[in-house]
Design a protein that fits this description.
5-stranded mixed β-sheet; 20% helix; 7-stranded antiparallel β-sheet; 16 strands
Length: 475
């Protein structure tokens, strides 16, 4: 595509006779570019040579599509059509860029739209063997999207089946009063043991990024934003869109809602106060952030309190919408820059952790896979410094690292924020080994205990694989 004409099209081969009843379109979201189709035509064919347009009586239908970035638009056909091939022929579109705004009456790039065809497969009369549905995995698990009540029931069932190694507890409530349940899996649930590092997976920070919620088989917090998830769940996979459920009920993006400790640290470094007059780790939360009237979501307060109660060593924040692992810092040091490489003092450790996940993920290691959007993360091994992708002030990763010394990365699990339930088995298979291997890294360094002596210094041996130290200081 890319030509200024109305004859370009996107063709879908259903691979057999199919009953088409409608089309859903949505803008293909990018951090730097926003485009969507505002109107289109539809044609059908059985051989790709002869095409019949969708008509309402004798008139060819021009379907009205998206009016803005976030909301998917459903158009039902005047009558269902049985065919093998369908073409979407955009007529008008809008293209937006931060430095260049263009309103076009032709489709600039047809790739800037997500299209779902609503269809029902017919049996193939030329093939006596019906197509078998393949689940994508041999694991006998409950692969479907679970709403809040179903998630709670599932956690309860797992705990009852494994009472000696599991415990369910709540770290707080969402704005609408839904409890934020956590499952602990340990040989002695409810007890922190010296020398046994604490690990956490957090999913559902953005309620419409649901895959992590369905993949965390050994997990802690499957739904950080339960109110947002319930909104996205009611809309379903196609109609939830990029925004529905992303924010909390109050409108907070939880990944921008944690205390900005980066600026506190960098200002102190510029004033040469670190480390003797200002700490470079376990940085305290500014007093203004703790006030009752501070703009802090109850979900964020609950997670911070949770972090402070348990000495977590390693964590991962499970997101969706891309295929990449990002590591701190998430916020650019130059405040006015949207992108800037901003590594931490432990950059080698974070790069190792991100690489462990990315190199064991079945989709990320596939060099022939399609790009999710426009960024080609494969060139960098499917990992990136968060700030070098796009700045995120107040991220949970940066806060976790600076306030609690817990190493945390963000894992973008899938191109699709809300995949179909039928895709969950394959998504589980894509990520299963990565999730387990990443957890194993909590034991990959040096774990030690030491009395609370002044000026205690612990150094990692440079030759230990992997080359980092995860230490727990206990009296």
């Amino acid at each position: 595509a890319g030509y200024n004409d109305k004859d370009q099209w996107l063709e879908i081969d259903a691979r057999r006779l199919t009953r088409f009843t409608g089309v859903i379109t949505q803008a293909l979201n990018s951090i730097w570019t926003y485009s969507w189709v505002t109107s289109y035509k539809i044609q059908f064919s059985n051989d790709t040579h002869r095409w019949k347009p969708s008509k309402n009586g004798s008139q060819e239908v021009i379907f009205q599509a998206n009016k803005e970035l976030e909301t998917p638009v459903l158009n039902l056909l005047p009558e269902p059509v049985v065919a093998r091939y369908i073409r979407i022929n955009p007529q008008t579109c809008i293209w937006l860029h931060p430095q260049n705004v263009s309103f076009s009456h032709f489709p600039l790039w047809i790739k800037y739209v997500l299209i779902y065809a609503i269809l029902c497969f017919f049996p193939d009369p030329n093939h006596i063997y019906p197509w078998e549905h393949t689940s994508g995995t041999n694991d006998k698990l409950d692969f479907r999207h679970h709403n809040y009540k179903e998630m709670r029931k599932l956690m309860k069932n797992v705990s009852e089946a494994c009472p000696n190694i599991t415990r369910i507890y709540s770290i707080g409530k969402s704005y609408l009063g839904l409890k934020m349940y956590v499952m602990e899996i340990s040989d002695n649930p409810g007890q922190h043991e010296v020398g046994e590092p604490e690990f956490r997976y957090v999913a559902g920070m953005h309620g419409n990024e649901v895959l992590g919620r369905e993949l965390t088989r050994i997990h802690l917090l499957p739904s950080m934003n339960p109110d947002g998830y319930e909104m996205a769940y009611k809309q379903g996979s196609e109609l939830a869109g990029w925004a529905m459920g992303r924010w909390t009920y109050e409108g907070f993006d939880l990944n921008h809602n944690f205390a900005d400790l980066n600026t506190e640290l960098w200002d102190a470094e510029d004033a040469e106060l670190v480390p003797h007059k200002f700490p470079n780790h376990y940085i305290p939360i500014p007093e203004s952030y703790t006030f009752p009237n501070a703009t802090v979501a109850p979900e964020t307060r609950a997670v911070i309190s949770w972090m402070q109660r348990y000495p977590f060593v390693l964590s991962a924040n499970l997101h969706g919408g891309e295929l990449v692992v990002t590591y701190p810092f998430d916020m650019t040091r130059t405040y006015w820059k949207a992108q800037e490489l901003t590594p931490t003092a432990d950059d080698a450790v974070f790069r190792w952790l991100a690489t462990v996940y990315a190199t064991s993920n079945l989709v990320m290691v596939d060099d022939e896979r399609r790009l999710c959007h426009y960024e080609d993360f494969m060139q960098e091994g499917n990992i990136i410094n968060g700030a070098n992708w796009h700045t995120v002030p107040g991220s949970m990763n940066d806060f976790s690292y600076l306030h609690t010394n817990c190493f945390e990365v963000t894992i973008e699990l899938s191109c699709d924020k809300f995949p179909h339930a039928a895709e969950l088995p394959q998504e589980w298979e894509n990520n299963k080994e990565s999730l387990l291997l990443y957890m194993e890294q909590v034991r990959g360094g040096v774990t030690c205990t030491a009395p609370p002596l002044p000026c205690v210094s612990i150094r990692a041996a440079a030759l230990l694989p992997p080359p980092f130290l995860l230490a727990t200081l206990k009296p």
